[in-house]
Write a structure and sequence with these properties.
There is one protein chain. This protein has one domain: AhpD-like. 63% of the residues lie in helices and 0% in strands. The chain is built from nine helices and no strands. The protein has helices at residues 12-19, 21-36, 44-57, 61-72, 78-87, 96-110, 117-125, 130-152, 163-174. Helix 2 (21-36) runs antiparallel to helix 8 (130-152) and helix 4 (61-72) packs across helix 5.
């Protein structure tokens, strides 16, 4: 049971966002900017995978499952690839660039301190540019916040397992902005 009264009955961050539209708008805009639009070297699926990985490291079940579904819906390896990354990014079948950026994200998740020179050098050696490093650090930092928001208020998990796949279809098609699709509870998770 959530620590605050949520009149919407929606799980995870969705209930929190629906309850507080004033804070939902900037949180959704941030998620959309970070995850829905890719760059030449980091696709939306790659970005979702970073969010899923950080959420998994933080032990936030709702966010890890949500962003795992969102990544799986956009990556060629689907759910198998996502599971492999969550289990061990060092052996998962991803590019060296993505593997190095996942290491950067893990350092951000571990503590509020500068990412190690070694992790940055490895990412650069794998082809990371300033935008890749910036976006990876910001995605990881933002998902530490989103994860703490969801778990800190003890939000519920979806009742039916297909909810994550349904949300993935909406997010892939419309992004994170509630104004982009019907208000049926899809947030950055």
């Amino acid at each position: 049971m959530a620590h605050i009264e949520l009149s919407t009955g929606l799980p995870g961050i969705n209930g929190l966002l629906a309850q507080r539209p004033d804070t939902a708008d900037p949180l959704e805009r941030l998620a959309d900017a970070l995850l829905h639009t890719g760059t030449p070297s980091l696709s939306p699926g790659d970005r979702e995978l970073i969010a899923a990985y950080v959420s998994e490291l933080n032990g936030t079940r709702f966010c890890s499952a949500s962003h795992s579904a969102f990544a799986a819906a956009q990556l060629a390896g689907g759910a198998d690839l996502v599971r492999a990354v969550l289990a061990d990014p060092d052996t998962a079948p991803v590019s060296e660039l993505l593997r190095a950026l996942l290491r950067v994200a893990a350092e951000v998740q571990q503590a509020a301190r500068p990412v190690s020179d070694e992790a940055v050098a490895a990412a650069r050696a794998a082809g990371a540019d300033d935008t890749d490093l910036h976006d990876t650090v910001l995605i990881a930092a933002a998902f530490c916040m989103y994860n703490r928001y969801v778990d800190g208020l003890a939000t519920a998990l979806p009742e039916h397992p297909g909810a994550y796949a349904e949300s993935a279809r909406r997010v892939v098609a419309h992004g994170y902005r509630r104004t982009a699709a019907p208000q049926n509870g899809r947030g950055p998770a």
